[in-house]
Amino acid sequence: PSFHKSYPNAAYYGTPRHLRRLTQIPWSGNLNDCTVRTLWQPDVELRIPAGAEFINPQPESSNHFISVFVYHLSSKTLHVNDTIVYADKPNFLFRLFGYKHGRMAFHPSIKNVGLHPTEDGPYLFRDWMRNMLHDWPFENICCAHMGVKIGGAHDDVVTLLNESQSLFKKLSIKNRKRNPDGELPVDNHYNMNIVGDECG
């Protein structure tokens, strides 16, 4: 809201959660709409990860794991809101959560409410990340609320994904035991963003 007060004449585009919660902003479009996500091509590409809830994440006030990934081609910069965390010098609280100096990490909610509570949810997210890394040769990453990494960001995210294989397996096994029928919470959306650019 404060950004909108400073720049009231700009066009604002938001996620479904933004549109529901920040009703004082006159939104120009919903980023869940493929036509909106293609407005800035070819200069900027937007994608939404698979394996998690984007439209109706629960609990809505705290489950911010999935965000729109935004790639600016000419600067080779990736912007990620909460899904990936980078802190050049993490404070004490973040160090308690295991964040290390100059390392990438997934948002801690990946271990509980971040991904769909299904056996394949973690692997859908992993495979989506692999496709994104294949398609977007970014060098820099801007992780909202935390830090910016200039140079070497792509390799760091590849390392993060590779080091998370055991986590994906653990989450998949846990979900299979807790949710053998693969049921999603009410009002969640399953078959989203699974192959390549979900607008394609």
What would your notes on this structure say?
This protein is of the alpha/beta class and 200 residues long. The protein has two domains: 1-39, no CATH class; 40-178, no CATH class. It has seven helices and nine strands; from the N terminus they run αβαβαββββαβαββαα. Strands 3-4-5-8-9 form a five-stranded mixed β-sheet, with no helix packed on it. It has a two-stranded parallel sheet with strand order 1-2. It has a two-stranded antiparallel sheet with strand order 6-7. It is globular. The mean pLDDT is 88.
Tell me the strand percentage band.
15-25%
Mind describing the biggest β-sheet? Answer: 5 strands, mixed
* Structural class by sheet pairing and helices: alpha/beta
How large, in whole angstroms, is the Cα Rg?
A: 17 Å
Question: Can you tell me the residue ranges where pLDDT is under 50 for at least 5 consecutive residues?
Answer: none
General form: globular
Helix content: 25-40%
Characteristic terms for this protein:
alpha/beta; 200 residues; two-stranded parallel ribbon; five-stranded mixed sheet; 2 domains; 7 helices; globular; single chain
